[in-house]
């Protein structure tokens, strides 16, 4: 399709989709970092309680599942990225 | 009934139920029904074979020993799953577009379809999976034993090894029945996947039930449970950073590389879009599976007598409380976890073993003759079944040899590190075009050796495989080759130690050898196809069964054959199969027929490839094929246009040549015009002069002679006059200065008049006419028309050499024209003369008295003026002229 | 010296005129009116002089002349050619083919007689 015929909203939508794909890529990295946070915690006697870490881990787990669900809802695997810029694919 | 007997009964009933589920799913899939089989939730649940008996029993044991550390085993897969956009999407796309059947197949395909690599990966996978299968057998036997201990009626404990053997045999039978029912090109097993999904629900439900029972039943609530945790030995979060990060990474790597995970995630994948659902549903499933692990461990540690196996808390806690029903449910959960893992692992490994080891050897031994004879299928299935039995038996053997001392979690981790060796080659192959076969072999080989030496062999304990001396002083007494402290890395956790060194050396060798080696052409081709898979095959989509293929085939055929012909072909085939509409089943017969038809248009090889691609769902997507088809159609259209053009060119050239010949002939005639006119004038003048001189100079002429010569002079003078008249007439006609006098008369009268004037009476020419057809009134310049008729009849009289000469005049009306044919029975006009007879001074014979060769030229001019035409009709019995005249003749306006 | 003249000509009126003129001058005139079998007629009559028209039905006068000259018996027989096409091209062709004399129609009777006498007498 020639550039001048492409409607504006389409460009907007594909832009939104590319940013969603960025988010999908970032999510596991963010998750990995966040899962390591308890390693930094120090309690009064040098260690912290299992309960607190458990709540943090499971809370984070649920949050990641929900975010992943929200992102995946809008990303279709079968859709090919329409001519992704090289910088994004790399 | 003793609880042990009840347990066996429940087991048998459960297995029968699984059989029924698998059977029903297979049947539904075979009939193309059951879209629920292709639900993304079934896909997600099938991924849960990640959670084996190790998870079900071992996670609690792990938690009882190391607290929250167990959760890393689930965090890794969670991160991989929510990061599906990175890797899983590409793996699934490559797996589908390249028709990958196993992880060995994927790696060998990527690196130039190297069978050596495939064999290597297969061996590594089998070695890595064997302890894991042993682990499942162990967990089932342990759980049996746990029940037996509480059974007061049981006089003797059941023999653990015979229990394991029974379980192994049962699993083998189930796997063979449902894993090798059909030799599907796509290696999908709907029945097995469905059974696994059911088992996934059972184990989750069982674990949640035990968790709820422990928290609210045994502990008395959430707050109390938290208090118990706080009070237990695992109340502190004391994991080392390296193990936390390392185990998370290890589980993530194993999740990607485990052959059984690859089987359910990539091979059994029906639709890429299922990943979207799995992206959140599978992390949720894992979260739920781990939710009650720490509480169960804490409560178990609190309530169970010290020395109780924490791996069996899930089972022993309900049993202790006398909840036999819950215990049986829990047992079923563990049983489900164990069986589903063994089944899928056996299927995945048997595919690899039979495809990459048994079949190549068998084909080699049989000299390839079997490929054509068609019993490959049978051999492949047999190889598959034997492989399944072999793999399960290998697990059983390991279980018997290793005893059952090792903690479940330890065996699992050893296995994980083994399969993680695939990761550099796998990811490198998917994301780096520079990865080569040499690099993959080097990396895999080195990683495998390090894993074997640092983790697998030492796991049997000192002096079992490796002597104590090696542990203490390293191989050959070299200090930095100690298996637990490679290169002087002292004091590390053995698993982390092995993971670090094997992955470092593996990746290093892989990258270095890839950089240094040069790939073969097929490696480069495959590399491009794998790394750029999203550019190469957009959206293969889900194969929605046979009809979708038919539709694709129809779409493709239409582009090649044209819509009408393709539809007719498909409709015929559908009717033959007793179906209505345009879409027949893609049966072998129909495909063969279609291929034959298509090969007429695009060539046999292309047709075969195209149909193969659509039906087989291979590397090239349907859209690619459509592009090829469009291209082919364009080429065909273009070449037919070219053909038409060249025909047109040939026609034009022929016309040009004809025109040129005619021009040359006319030029010759023009050249001879003067001599012609000279001849035509001089001949009568010669007679006139000669006889006038005779009359003048000869005195003794008789009166008869005088009168005769005078009349000759007169005749020749008339002939001269006529010639001059004709010339004048023609010149007037040619210059368009003629004045036409429109009259109305009957055609028959006109022909009568022409016959008389042409001197037919008294001559030997017979004229045959159809007077009824001639009763046509004409309004035109009748005198001029008569002139044409006279000329034609006179020509016949003069030139017809038929014996006796006959002229046939036929009249008919056709397309608004009155057509009058004058056909004689003479020898006609030779083709080379036909083009010039209407030219001036052209005569058929060289000379014949009276003709100046202007008659037909005048006729043609007259007919043009009258709005009609006169032409020579070739291919008749004799000479034939056709005069045509508009019926509603309004004279050409002048 | 013979006096046999063979006239090969297709126009009947011209045949009649030439025959009349030559007969009256004492020539024995035979006529032949087509090209096909003209050579046969030449052999039968064995004339002392041949008067040949250029345009004949069936065969051109030039061709007949070539045949006559090709026959050793008539190689020296004088041939008077008559033509209605007064072009110099024809004259050249006639001379090349071996015509003794060449006359263009219409001719005067006296000229014909003079030419015939001149051709036969020497």
Automatic annotation (TrEMBL), chain A:
Keywords: Membrane, Transmembrane, Transmembrane helix
Ranges that cross the membrane: 20-41, 53-71
Record's protein name: DUF3311 domain-containing protein
Organism in which the protein naturally occurs: Roseovarius azorensis
Automatic annotation (TrEMBL), chain B:
Record membrane topology: Multi-pass membrane protein
Localization in the cell: Membrane
A GO MF label: transmembrane transporter activity
A GO term from the CC aspect: membrane
Keywords: Coiled coil, Kinase, Membrane, Phosphoprotein, Transferase, Transmembrane, Transmembrane helix, Two-component regulatory system
Domain Histidine kinase residue range list: 676-889
Gene3D superfamilies: 1.10.287.130, Histidine kinase-like ATPase, C-terminal domain, Sodium/glucose cotransporter
Residues spanning the membrane: 6-29, 41-64, 70-88, 116-135, 163-180, 192-216, 244-262, 282-305, 325-349, 382-401, 407-432, 439-460
Catalytic reaction annotation: ATP + protein L-histidine = ADP + protein N-phospho-L-histidine
Coiled-coil residues: 628-669
Enzyme Commission designation: 2.7.13.3
InterPro entries the record matches: HATPase_C_sf (IPR036890), HATPase_dom (IPR003594), His_kinase_dom (IPR005467), HisK_dim/P_dom (IPR003661), HisK_dim/P_sf (IPR036097), Na/Glc_symporter_sf (IPR038377), Na/solute_symporter (IPR001734), Sensor_HK_Regulatory (IPR050736)
Similarity section: Belongs to the sodium:solute symporter (SSF) (TC 2.A.21) family.
Protein name as catalogued: histidine kinase
Native source organism of the sequence: Roseovarius azorensis
TrEMBL record, chain C:
Domain Response regulatory: 4-120
Domain of life of the organism encoding this protein: Bacteria
Keyword terms of this UniProt record: DNA-binding, Phosphoprotein, Transcription, Transcription regulation, Two-component regulatory system
SMART domains: REC
Protein name, per record: Response regulator receiver domain-containing protein
Positions carrying 4-aspartylphosphate: 53
GO BP annotations listed: phosphorelay signal transduction system
GO molecular function, one term: DNA binding
PROSITE patterns on file: RESPONSE_REGULATORY (PS50110)
Keyword ATP-binding: no
């Amino acid at each position: 399709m020639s550039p001048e015929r492409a409607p504006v909203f389409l460009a907007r939508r594909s832009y939104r989709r590319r940013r969603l794909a960025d988010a999908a890529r970032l999510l596991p990295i963010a998750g990995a970092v966040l899962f390591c946070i308890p390693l930094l915690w120090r309690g009064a006697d040098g260690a912290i309680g299992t309960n607190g870490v458990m709540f943090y881990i499971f809370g984070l787990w649920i949050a990641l599942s929900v975010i992943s669900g929200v992102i995946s809802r809008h990303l279709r695997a079968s859709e090919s990225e329409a001519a992704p810029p090289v910088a994004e694919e790399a | 009934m003793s609880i042990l007997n009840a347990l066996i009964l429940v087991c048998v009933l459960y297995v029968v139920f699984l059989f029924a589920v698998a059977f029903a799913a297979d049947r539904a899939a075979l009939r193309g029904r059951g879209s629920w089989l292709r639900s993304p939730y079934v896909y997600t649940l099938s991924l849960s074979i990640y959670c084996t008996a190790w998870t079900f029993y071992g996670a609690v044991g792990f938690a009882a020993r190391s607290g929250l550390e167990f959760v890393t085993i689930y965090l890794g897969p969670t991160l991989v799953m929510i990061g599906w956009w990175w890797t899983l999407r590409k793996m699934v796309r490559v797996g589908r577009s390249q028709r990958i059947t196993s992880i060995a197949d994927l790696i060998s395909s990527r690196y130039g379809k190297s069978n050596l690599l495939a064999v290597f990966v297969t061996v590594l996978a089998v070695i890595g999976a064997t302890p894991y299968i042993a682990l499942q057998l162990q967990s089932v036997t342990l759980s049996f034993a746990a029940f037996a201990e509480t059974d007061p009626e049981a006089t003797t404990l059941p023999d653990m090894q015979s229990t394991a053997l029974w379980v192994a045999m049962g699993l083998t039978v189930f796997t063979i029945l449902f894993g090798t029912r059909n030799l599907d090109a796509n290696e999908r097993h709907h029945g097995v996947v469905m059974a696994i999904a059911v088992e996934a629900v059972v184990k989750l439900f069982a674990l949640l039930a035990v968790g709820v029972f422990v928290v609210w039943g045994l502990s008395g609530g959430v707050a109390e449970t938290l208090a118990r945790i706080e009070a237990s030995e695992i109340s502190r979060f004391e994991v080392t950073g390296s193990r936390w990060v390392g185990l998370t990474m290890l589980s993530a790597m194993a999740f990607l590389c485990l052959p059984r995970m690859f089987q359910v995630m990539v091979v059994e994948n029906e639709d890429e879009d299922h990943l979207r659902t799995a992206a959140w549903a599978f992390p949720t499933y894992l979260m739920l599976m781990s939710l009650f692990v720490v509480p169960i461990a804490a409560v178990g540690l609190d309530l169970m007598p010290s020395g109780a196996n924490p791996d069996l808390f899930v089972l022993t806690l309900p049993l202790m409380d006398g909840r036999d029903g819950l215990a049986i449910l829990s047992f079923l959960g563990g049983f489900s976890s164990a069986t589903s893992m063994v089944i899928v692992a056996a299927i995945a490994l048997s595919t690899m073993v039979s495809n990459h080891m048994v079949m190549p050897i068998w084909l080699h031994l049989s000299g390839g003759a079997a490929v054509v004879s068609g019993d490959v299928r049978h051999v492949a299935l047999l190889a598959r079944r034997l492989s399944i039995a072999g793999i399960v038996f290998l697990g059983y053997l390991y279980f018997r040899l290793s005893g059952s001392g090792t903690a479940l979690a330890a065996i699992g981790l050893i296995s994980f590190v083994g399969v993680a060796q695939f990761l550099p080659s796998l990811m490198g192959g998917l994301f780096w075009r520079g990865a080569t076969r040499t690099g993959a072999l080097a990396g895999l080989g080195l990683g495998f050796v390090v894993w074997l030496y640092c983790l697998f062999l030492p796991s049997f304990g000192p002096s079992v495989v490796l002597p104590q001396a090696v542990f203490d002083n390293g191989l050959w007494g070299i200090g930095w080759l100690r298996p637990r402290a490679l290169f002087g890395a002292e004091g590390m956790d053995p698993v982390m130690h092995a993971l670090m060194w094997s992955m470092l050396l593996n990746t290093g060798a892989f990258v270095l050898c890839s950089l240094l080696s040069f790939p073969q052409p097929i490696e480069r081709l495959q590399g491009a196809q794998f790394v750029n898979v999203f550019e190469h095959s957009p959206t293969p989509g889900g194969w929605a069964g046979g009809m979708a293929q038919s539709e694709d085939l129809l779409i493709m055929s239409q582009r090649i054959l044209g819509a009408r012909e393709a539809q007719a072909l498909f409709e015929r085939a559908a009717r033959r199969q007793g179906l209505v509409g345009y879409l027949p089943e893609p049966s072998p017969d129909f495909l063969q027929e279609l291929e034959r038809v298509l090969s007429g248009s695009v060539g046999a090889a292309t047709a075969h490839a195209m149909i193969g691609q659509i039906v087989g769902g291979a590397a090239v997507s349907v859209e690619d094929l459509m592009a090829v088809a469009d291209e082919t159609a364009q080429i065909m259209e273009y070449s037919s246009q070219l053909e038409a053009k060249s025909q047109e060119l040939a026609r034009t050239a022929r016309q040009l040549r004809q025109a040129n010949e005619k021009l040359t002939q006319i030029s010759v005639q023009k050249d001879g015009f003067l001599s012609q006119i000279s001849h035509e004038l001089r001949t009568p003048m010669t007679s006139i002069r000669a006889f006038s001189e005779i009359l003048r100079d000869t005195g003794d002429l008789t009166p008869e002679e005088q009168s005769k010569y005078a009349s000759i002079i007169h005749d020749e003078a008339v002939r001269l006059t006529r010639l001059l008249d004709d010339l004048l007439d023609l010149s007037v006609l040619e210059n368009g200065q003629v004045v036409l006098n429109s009259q109305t008369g009957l055609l028959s009268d006109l022909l009568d008049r022409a016959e008389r004037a042409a001197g037919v009476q008294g001559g030997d020419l017979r004229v045959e006419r159809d007077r009824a057809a001639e009763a046509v009134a004409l309004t035109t310049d009748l005198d001029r028309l008569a002139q044409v008729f006279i000329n034609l009849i006179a020509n016949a009289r003069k030139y017809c050499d038929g014996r006796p000469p006959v002229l046939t005049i036929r009249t008919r009306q056709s397309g608004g024209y009155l057509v009058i044919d004058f056909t004689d029975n003479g020898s006609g006009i030779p083709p080379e003369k036909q083009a010039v007879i209407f030219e001036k001074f052209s005569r058929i014979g060289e000379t014949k008295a009276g003709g100046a060769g202007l008659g037909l030229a005048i006729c043609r001019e007259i007919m043009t003026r009258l709005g009609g035409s006169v032409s020579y009709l070739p291919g008749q019995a004799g000479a034939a002229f056709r005069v045509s005249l508009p019926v509603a003749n309004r004279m050409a306006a002048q | 010296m013979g006096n046999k003249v063979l006239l090969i000509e297709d126009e009947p009126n011209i045949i009649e005129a030439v025959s009349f003129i030559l007969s009256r001058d004492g020539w024995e005139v035979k006529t032949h009116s087509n090209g096909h079998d003209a050579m046969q007629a030449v052999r039968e009559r064995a004339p002392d002089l041949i008067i040949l028209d250029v345009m004949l039905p069936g065969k051109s006068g030039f061709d007949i002349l070539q045949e006559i000259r090709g026959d050793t018996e008539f190689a020296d027989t004088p041939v008077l050619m008559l033509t209605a096409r007064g072009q110099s091209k024809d004259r050249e062709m006639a001379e090349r083919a071996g015509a003794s004399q060449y006359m263009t129609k219409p001719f005067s009777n006296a000229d014909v007689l003079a030419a015939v006498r001149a051709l036969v007498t020497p």
